[in-house]
Amino acid sequence: MKTLKILIQNALRVKIILKNSESYLAHLPPLNDNIPAETLSEHLELVFEYLNRNVDENGLDIIIDRLIECIILNGSLGNEEILREYIKQLFADTIAFHDFGKVNENFQTERMKNNLFRSVSTIMKPAYGHSELGAFIYLVYHLEIINAKFNLTEEQKVFLSFIAFLFVNSVNLHHNPKIVEPLKKLKGSIFIKQYEKLIKYLDLYSIRQTNISKRYFENFVDIINSIEIEKHQVFPLYALTRLNFSLLTSSDYLATSEYMNQLKLDNLGLIDETLRKKIVSAAMTTHSYNAKAHQLADSNFEIVNPIERSGDNLNIIRQNMAIEVLRNIRKQSKNRLFYLEAPTGGGKTNLSMLIIAELLNANPEINKVFYVFPFTTLITQTHKAILKTLDLTENEVSLLHSKAGFQTKKNIKSEELEDGTYGNEKLNYLNNLFVHYPICLLTHIRFFDIIKTNEKETNYLFHRLANSIVIIDELQSYPPQHWDKMLYFIQNFAEIFNMKFVLMSATLPRIDKLNLPLVNRPVFTDLLPNAKQYFTNANFADRVRFCFDYRDIKLEISDLADIVLEKSEEYILRSENKSVFTIVEFIFKKSVTAFEEAIKNRFFDENCIFVLSGTILESRRREIINFLKNEKNKSKKVLLITTQVVEAGVDIDMDLGFKNLSLIDSDEQLAGRVNRNVKKEPCNVYLFQINNAGVIYKKDQRYSVTRDNISAEEHENILKTKNFDKLYDLVLGEIDKKNGFKEMQNFNNTYYPYIQRLDYENIHKGFQIIENQNFSIFVPLSLPILILDEKDNDERIFSEDELFFLKQNNVIPIDGKIDGVSVWDIYFQMIKNREVEFIKKEIGRKTITGIISKFTFSVFSTDKIKRELLTFSNPEKQFDDYLYLEHHHLCYDYVKGLIESKFDSSENFIL
């Protein structure tokens, strides 16, 4: 097929076909800006320039061709060459035609203040609208060609016309905040209602209209509604229309921004050859253990794992896993789907970076990396590791999550920062909006939103998925009810968008076993095909011993306190330095508080009792983790009482564990925080039951399968042998069984039909990874700028950019702390202020959102807790989804979090 660049070069040009084209304006300059207005022709040429850059640099031509090939795969229609070429022409012309509707006289007079035109009577909504007019011109132009120019059968004409109706959605909605199902917009559309008024605009463009009457539109809407998309066409049509919308809206935005700001965007943030070589080299040389692994992988070294438990042997086994991964990825580097199953403490993050370097080295077309995590704590940890291991700068790594704030590329001298030009801020705004960074660390919510969103702003990033590596960590943390949707998208995007997916976990569900309506069955490459040899090695398997003595005994909090003290005392007596690090994990915060009350006057050192829950602020969480990791504290007697937030990738090393039973893989995650580096005798994790896990896991198939199908003995065996497939095979079977029932809501009967009919809204809504609604509570405390890290060095809570922003807004540190009351006032005033220029406001909003996250925690949204929290809040200061906890001194403690005893019932919503 012709390249998109050639199709755009040959596309209809306004300056050639539009009468008096120089009279039509597309944009006016910002107020007080002494630059001429931008003509319609100038704007479209700039859009074409950004389109070509987006397509060329992201390698999209081959992706578009592949999608079109898939749409006409079986060749049953005939005339494949004409159909292929014309579908691509239709794709290109959405961009060429998208602003043709700006010839609307009302747009020129009302929006452009163009005195060369006079307003006309119209019922267009809005009267100055241009998107629907442009869509009408696009559609009539192409329907005329389809029906008259080619020697096509009636079936072929209907098929191409159907594709044109799908693509016209992009033109129609390119200024809407969301895209909707194409045919919804056509029923009773302006094309029919305003036909007589719209048809006259064709003359301006010298477009002939002979066959496409009002009756044609009325009849054809019914015809295309009866078209059934075949299985092999479903995903390609979905992806092609989304890609079209992404390229049109992003190219249009960037072009408009260049004119309005008089700034050219030079860098789209991709991995070039220089960065590729740096990453590949760094992965081999930065750490001595990786250098050794590369050296041995290239030799005839035979992997033999030591049996005896020791820290040195653990490092040998980690090295052996790296060697095996390197050898396997090199053999299979052209494959697209990979599993990495490795034990907790086996160095999965390091292994994933070796994989990235090998895939980049073997696949020169790959130019982006997405690291996907379920928790922001994992993003923070991996960010530090990836900068060091792969020798990256902050300019090369983006953090995309709710707490990240506004990211600036350090392309100006530090002494210029205070007087930095507004132009630099505008470029940074674009880089944030379009994530123009070669490597992006983001949450699973943000990543899968890019995959399936119907929201315009997130859809800007859709075209950046092509030719990328995606590392999905902690796969087991995703709700099983969405595993089928995950597999459907992962398989299709990998195959057609040339994406490399690496799914990794210590407890890895093999989602490829699911039976889904896929054209091709997914084939995953195991990078550690004999992973069980590592799991069962004494250095991992005997690192922690699960004890079920208290699993079936009804315990009270006081009973558990006695047990914890007894077992901790026993550990102290046999430890070399007479110390102990004990962790006790509950499901609900209420039990955390009750347990602390029961043990606080009895534990060995009351100053070393720490509480960690979902209501603890980030600065306090980091203080606790740093204390636990500080070597000088290793001789102390420490008790950490926590909810399941500690499982979210928290890198700590405890001696004893006590855990409320919940999900089997959750039990394993807690065990991963105990004896992490195998430097101690086998350490025990005791399982007990106080909180009812069914309260929060009642919809999770892992919980119901464990309850109904796995005996206590099998539960023990899974944890001891690490044979999590026994659990997951049952869960996958339940998902398949559900998908087999026609009368049930499931993937096959409910979600897949959304994709078939391009129901973008329900595709998005039907795949919500977090279904529980949360709301956020802002605590106006004073928080420290700096805390001590694990080596007693300063660690920043507020970045330099954040402090600079606060200073600009007259908030300065007092006694080394930032006042939360002042921070909230900035946010409140900034959001309310409608006079601030858009980009300045958006930069400020993004920056202050990152700052606000340091003062914020979230709880499940229920009417009861909202009512109770409101009694401690100031309703006049609440905004968006935040409650302002003005009277926090009555119900909140910086060290312990929310004091749930102040509420009638907090059992089920505070974690």
Brief overview:
One of its GO terms (biological process) is defense response to virus. By secondary structure, this protein is an alpha/beta fold.
Principal-axis shape: globular
Provide the structure class: alpha/beta
Oligomer: single chain
**How many β strands by DSSP?**
24
Q: How do the strands of the widest beta sheet line up side by side?
A: 5-6-4-7-8-3-9
The share of residues in extended strands comes to 5-15%
Describe the sheet with the most strands: 7 strands, parallel
Q: Can you count the helices? A: 39
Rg measurement, Å: 30 Å
Termini separation (Å)?
Answer: 56 Å
Helix content: 40-55%
* Number of individual domains: 4
Low-pLDDT runs: 412-421
Please explain how this structure is put together.
Residues 329-526 form the Helicase ATP-binding domain. It comes from Pseudarcicella hirudinis. It is a single chain. The protein is of the alpha/beta class and 911 residues long. The chain folds into four domains: 4-261, no CATH class; 273-302 and 311-405 and 435-532, Rossmann fold (3-Layer(aba) Sandwich); 542-698, P-loop containing nucleotide triphosphate hydrolases (Rossmann fold), CATH 3.40.50; 774-902, no CATH class. The chain is 47% helix and 11% strand. The protein is built from 39 helices and 24 strands. Strands 5-6-4-7-8-3-9 form a seven-stranded parallel beta sheet, with helices on both faces. Strand 12 (609-612), helix 28 (618-629) and strand 13 (637-642) form a beta-alpha-beta unit. It is globular and about 95 Å long. Residues 412-421 have low confidence and may be disordered.
